[in-house]
Amino acid sequence: MFKFYIVFVLSILSLAACKEEKPVSKEIVVSKESDSLKLKPTVEVKTPQKSTSWLGNYSCNFLRMKDESADPRGWGMIRINIKKDSAKLGLDTYIENFERELKIINKTENEIIMSLKNQKDSTFIISKKDKKYFLKSNFINETVGENETYELIKE
Predict the structure, then answer these.
(1) Any residues with CB less than 8 A from the CB of 15 and at least 6 apart, and which?
(2) Smallest Cα–Cα separation from 6: which of 37, 43, 42?
(3) What is the pLDDT along the chain (155 residues), one digit of tens a residue?
(4) 89 closest CA partner among 97, 104, 79, 76
(5) Half-sphere exposure of 129 (CA within 13 A, CB side)
(6) Of residues 100, 132, 133, the one with CA closest to residue 118
(7) Model pLDDT, residue 38
(8) What is the secondary structure of the chain as a DSSP string?
(9) What residues contact residue 79 under an 8 Å CB cut-off, 6+ apart?
(10) What is the CATH code for 56-154?
(11) Domain ranges of the chain
(12) Which domain of life is it from (predicted)?
């Protein structure tokens, strides 16, 4: 009868664990007061690792023509839209106006590395530092003619 009771309790605990969709492990503890066995159910809960979501729109304004800072046409805008499996780059200036597909190469908590879809040597690196986002890109440096790091705003 005692064995039947243990099997019955284990069955109920297994059914309850299936409904909650959490892994359940069971420990058998021998009570010091008596020699009877007691079941002690324990639920294992895993906490997800902290990660930064890179999904979203990033943009920044920059001075495209250095000697024309008073002229609105001297300024440009960089736009990056990151989705789950893809990204797009937009560069709007008085001289350039285009949009390109990007390929996501690697993501970490503090950095995402992308490249142009058909040119793997043209890289875009967005890094996060103190809740600010910074863009370094050899493609933009070659296009604009300046070696810069751009501070992005996440929208």
Answers:
(1) none
(2) 37
(3) 555 555 555 566 555 555 444 454 445 555 555 455 555 555 554 444 444 589 999 999 998 887 877 888 889 999 999 998 899 999 999 888 999 999 999 999 999 999 999 999 999 999 999 999 999 999 999 988 889 999 999 98
(4) 79
(5) 7
(6) 100
(7) 58
(8) -HHHHHHHHHHHHHHHHHHHT--EEEEEEE-SSSS-EEEEEEE--PPPPP-----EEEEEEEESSGGGTTSGGGEEEEEEEE-SS-EEEEEE-SS-EEEEEEEEEEE-SSEEEEEETTEEEEEEEEEEETTEEEEEEHHHHHHHSS--EEEEEE-
(9) 57, 58, 59, 88, 89, 90, 91, 92
(10) 2.40.128
(11) 2-43, 56-154
(12) Bacteria
Distance CA 107, CA 66 (A): 33
Tokens describing residue 20: 């909650």
Question: Cβ(125)–Cβ(106) under 8 Å?
Answer: no
Question: To which residue do tokens 């058909």 refer?
Answer: 118
